[in-house]
Amino acid sequence: MTPAQFVQETSSTGEWKRQGNRFTGRISRESSSAPGEGPDEQGRWPVEAGRYRLVVSLACPWAHRSIIVRRLLGLEDAISLAVVDPIRDERGWRFTLDPDDRDPVLGIKFLSEAYLHTDPSYDGRVTVPAIVDTVTGQVVTNDYPQITLDFSTEWTDFHRADAPQLIPADSDTRSEMDQLIEEIFRDVNNGVYRCGFATSQQAYGTAYDDLFARLDVLEDRLKDRTYLLGDTVREVDVRLFTTLVRFDAVYHGHFKCNRQKLTEFPNLWAYARRLYQLPGFGETVDFDQIKRHYYVTHDNINPTRIVPKGPDPRVWTA
């Protein structure tokens, strides 16, 4: 069996098993805590503009979701943004893009400092996105699926006037979206990682088949609709987009997801380009940071650390 990129997240049969989210606090309108206080007895932090800092990597698809949703809803003034260096070393995500290699708000050099301040015994992988409380320096949450949902439901007082409704109000449509989100996460969002980080041929083959079977279903779904649930952009579109926009640049070659390129799926490619050209989507994509992160930090997959020059990003706006 080939060496694992992340040993703790690889099973004995070579399957990639993504670690759970350690910090699952919620910032909620229902919190009984006063401004400036910590979480209430149910673990709910108060909604408070200017208090929380969203830590992201522009390379990371999970973090990219939160960047897009924050932009779409107009939460830039309510929730500040910290961007880490795309090159993660053995110490984790670094604030080397900031003066003195230190986040100017949190005062830390590594995101791991906030993790360990919150839980000194934490020994898992430090992940983004993470929301850090600027009052206590503690990590409120690194629960990336919930972060964007809460931006839509708990921060409504700070949404811009024409903010899109990313979560359907209709219960049937919401159920349909939740089912799509689950399938896309399992087979596509996490599926590309299950391919790339597999350490056995069987584990890789299973993930590869699941990935392209799901992409075929989505390709067919998009033959007669603008977005996944019709004519309106929803949360599920954001979640699929952040994988699709990285597909040809990274996953096709680096993660061996090479049955075909995104550009060879007519409906998915047209859909991804439509999203890319909307405000909040393409303007938040940084192909340089995306490629440098994957090709330089995954030593077991790309030991030479050579970063490919292509593909040409101009195809996204053609």
TrEMBL record:
The keyword Secreted does not apply. PROSITE patterns: GST_CTER (PS50405). Residues 1-14 have a biased composition (Polar residues). It comes from the Bacteria. InterPro entries: Glutathione-S-Trfase_C-like (IPR010987), Glutathione-S-Trfase_C_sf (IPR036282), Glutathione_S-Trfase (IPR040079), Glutathione_S-Trfase_N (IPR004045), GST_Omega-like_C (IPR047047), GST_Omega/GSH (IPR016639), Thioredoxin-like_sf (IPR036249). The active site is at residues 60, 193. The keyword Transferase applies. One of its GO terms (cellular component) is cytoplasm. One of its GO terms (molecular function) is glutathione transferase activity. The record marks 251, 294 as: Lowers pKa of active site Cys. Residues 1-44 are annotated as: Disordered. PANTHER family: GLUTATHIONE S-TRANSFERASE OMEGA-LIKE 1-RELATED (PTHR32419:SF6), GLUTATHIONYL-HYDROQUINONE REDUCTASE (PTHR32419). This is Putative glutathione S-transferase. It comes from Kribbella jejuensis.
